[in-house]
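Worked problem 6 (solution included).
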Amino acid sequence: MSSIVRFSVSIPGDLAEAFDRRIADQGYANRSEAVRDLMRDAIVDAEWEDADTRVVGVATLVFGHGRPGLARMLTRLQHEHHASVLCSTHIHLDAHNCMEVVVLRGSAARVQAIASALISARGVKHGKLVCTSAGGSLP
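Solution. The predicted structure is:
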């Protein structure tokens, strides 16, 4: 582990108070922990800006199970990209709706393209890609 570096930041008091309220609501014990997480988020966001960087993402899809052929099409898309699909989980939300959670790994461009294809499939009610790091650039 590297040494601890201390630095100071000058910000308006009302911004500090708002930040303190926010991090307290999220369960942070102190500002340092919250700032470390913000820094890591910025590093991960930068990874996704480089199309060739290897990343991990989770595509979440909500859809009605009654849509003819949709589940088959989502499965087909995943098989077409089997090298990038680490796993998927199918969840029955209620009598009419399902959720598919697909964990993807590969270049940022590839993961985004696969997630976009899944999310934009006709019949998907809502979809979202959560972008994270494969861990290589995080100290």
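Discussion: The two ends are 9 Å apart (CA to CA).
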